[in-house]
Amino acid sequence: QVQLVESGGGLVQAGGSLRLSCAASTGSFSTYGVGWFRQAPGKEREFVAAISRTFAFKSYADSMKGRFTISRDRAANTVFLQMNSLKPEDTAVYYCAAGQGGSTASAYDYWGQGTQVTVSS
Which position has the higher pLDDT, 104 or 53? Predict the structure, then answer.
């Protein structure tokens, strides 16, 4: 199995930026697609962004386009999510996942523990 660990979350003012990291604490996800999802209290898990195993394709939820950027460093076995122009509605627990890829949560096999992102107004 692959164990994933997210980091980089925290408290930020609206309009600010954060960079989240997802690293494999055990195993490697270099052969998997990787996605980012988020979940706010009382709401369903929401797709944020994904990057393919081959690095050839990236996808974003419409509300993230132009603000968030997903990237991958194979040598470091790490995936990043750069978040700019943050809004209060971005407040959620953010999870990274490894698996088949795409925007559907059920397509992923391995999940991190999540990192809290709080955006104040």
Answer: 104
